[in-house]
């Protein structure tokens, strides 16, 4: 599972220093180009698990341009998203984003450049605005299918969900968020996220 999380991390957070060169006009090409860039970076200089500043810099720098956190968050909250005020929505987006950064940055330190990534053919109509890109990531002979869901925007394709071992990220958090809102309202969910991020930050210090 650690290997799967590592691979998932590398692709979800993308990681190319030359971000402007990433082709965002085609969903599979976006995933393929950005993935290769982070593998090239790791090959040039391995990322040490305790090099937290470098890990956080990679995540903070490169995850934003290709990922729609607001869409991810709204779908994770489901019907409760509409019950939150604009200020609450913004706070939840920021806290959830930080939670994902904490979660995935830890695995980036495990990344090594020996993963092989295969890209099965993707078939979608020119009018499709929401697609799934499949990849087969192999390390040490262990294959893992990781799927990426993207949608089309005027600025290019954006990632908003991913699937590892048959479980989508949004699906994973939806029940947890629902339970928190039912127990203590939207503010209770915000407080939960704030406290969880505080714990994760303290653990890294």
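Q: What amino acid sequence fits the structure above?
A:
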């Amino acid at each position: 599972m650690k290997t799967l999380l590592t691979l998932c991390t590398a692709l979800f957070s993308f990681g190319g220093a030359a971000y402007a060169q990433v082709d965002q006009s085609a969903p599979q090409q976006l995933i393929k180009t950005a993935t290769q860039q982070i593998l090239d970076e790791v090959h040039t200089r391995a990322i040490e698990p305790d090099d937290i500043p470098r890990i956080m810099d990679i995540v903070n720098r490169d995850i934003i341009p290709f990922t729609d956190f607001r869409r991810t968050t709204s779908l994770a909250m489901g019907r409760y998203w509409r019950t939150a005020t604009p200020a609450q929505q913004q706070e939840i987006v920021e806290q959830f984003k930080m939670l994902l950064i904490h979660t995935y940055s830890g695995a980036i330190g495990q990344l090594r450049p020996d993963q092989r990534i295969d890209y099965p053919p993707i078939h979608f109509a020119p009018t499709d605005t929401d697609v799934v890109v499949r990849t087969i990531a192999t390390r040490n002979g262990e294959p893992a299918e990781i799927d990426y869901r993207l949608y089309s925007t005027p600025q290019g394709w954006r990632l908003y969900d991913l699937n590892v071992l048959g479980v989508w990220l949004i699906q994973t958090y939806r029940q947890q968020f629902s339970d928190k809102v039912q127990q203590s309202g939207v503010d209770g969910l915000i407080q939960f996220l704030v406290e969880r991020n505080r714990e994760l930050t303290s653990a890294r210090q």
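Q: And what stands out in the fold?
A: Residues 94 and 162 are 19 Å apart (CA to CA).
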